[in-house]
Protein: Exodeoxyribonuclease III
Organism: Pseudorhodoplanes sinuspersici
Amino acid sequence: MKIATFNVNGVNGRIVPLLRWLEEAAPDVVCLQELKAPDDRFPIGVIEKAGYGAIWHGQKSWNGVAILARGTQPIETRRGLPGDPDDSHSRYIEAAVAGIVIGCLYLPNGNPAPGPKFDYKLRWFERLTEYAASLLKLGVPVVLAGDYNVMPTELDVYKPERWIDDALFRPEVRTAFHALVAQGWTDALRAMHPDERIYTFWDYFRNAFGRNAGLRLDHFLLSPSVAKRLVAAGVDRDVRGWEKASDHAPAWITLSDASGNRRTLSTVRRRQPVRSL
């Protein structure tokens, strides 16, 4: 089973490279972020024509998340992160696909820091951490995938000394990420490539992609039962060089077939009903 995450930086403006990548890479599940489109502008017609069912949580001009599943329809289990009923940002959506709970997230950028946007980012991280703990307690297979807007270590940023005061790399944000992982999650890309510099984002400016001046912002956190099935992980780096490309490249993991006893998809659906902010 191949699961991918891709910040498309505008789903309609990047639809051509997105469809090309879907055809070439053929992921089974895809988490999309930064749709930059309201719900009624999500290109469901061409997505379905490409062979994918989809659920999405859009927002005009900004944010937006979606989950695609090849040859099937994702079963929505949550829309919006709990903990703040006044938060109107479209940053989290969740579905059950092939017995796995897939959480697709787009964590706030937080710049400029310090400031209100940074405070919102830290609060959102706290809400995610609390909710992630509740998912682990369920004992079901879970993947939390998306753009976390954090470089966890110096290995995840091309020149760490230049990013010390940035909201993507400030100590508070890295501490929050490590606290989340410490609940029992596995950082899949780092687990498969413990000592490599792996980037998922290259800015449009100053020839960042050509210089490989990148950042690792897109992550997969796996619950223990899913981590046991992890066999490969990587980044489709070449997609960043395509015409009309996003500033992110798709990242992906491959899982072996499930074996042994596990909770069923119907159990996941009963324990995680559809809810909205």
